[in-house]
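Folded chain entry —
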Amino acid sequence: MMGERTYLTLGNHTGIDIHIEITGDVHTGHWGPHQVNNNHSPQVKSRKVAFGNRARYDIKVWKNDNGQPGTFIGSFSHHVRYNLAGNRDHLEFIITNINGNSYMRVLSLRESGEEVIKFLLGSIGVERHLSPLGTDRSIKNREEILEVLKGIQKKLNELTDHLVYNETEYMEEREYEN
């Protein structure tokens, strides 16, 4: 099949170690369950997908119990589309315990970026955008729109790298203090 693989990074900055298992369109058909320690972000790749299509990742998450999957936290499916915005996504897990029950929320960098783009395009009209200098100008053609979207995606990737780096640095300082 012609196409590219998609890549999914799993960011665990929850403060706890977890186990993750992935099925669906993952490259080997099955990944895990693998222990993903706090402050680690492994990457999983899919089988090749054609441009415009997406890979499905079916994900299950457990708490760590002495190196083995323990209490089941939850499961969900996530898709990574291969298109002009790229072929990658980064999921950041948020897990909290309330009255002995674990609750999980997962944030997708790519979906967050898409929402920002929709908001920007919706609030300023599909044919206008804000330039890096803060002045607005007309978008003349489809290629220019695609270049703007690529620039926004690049900035979102840089922001995520910065946030993950700062969170890791903060957690390392906190660990050092203890």
About this structure: Residues 9 and 43 are 4 Å apart (CA to CA).
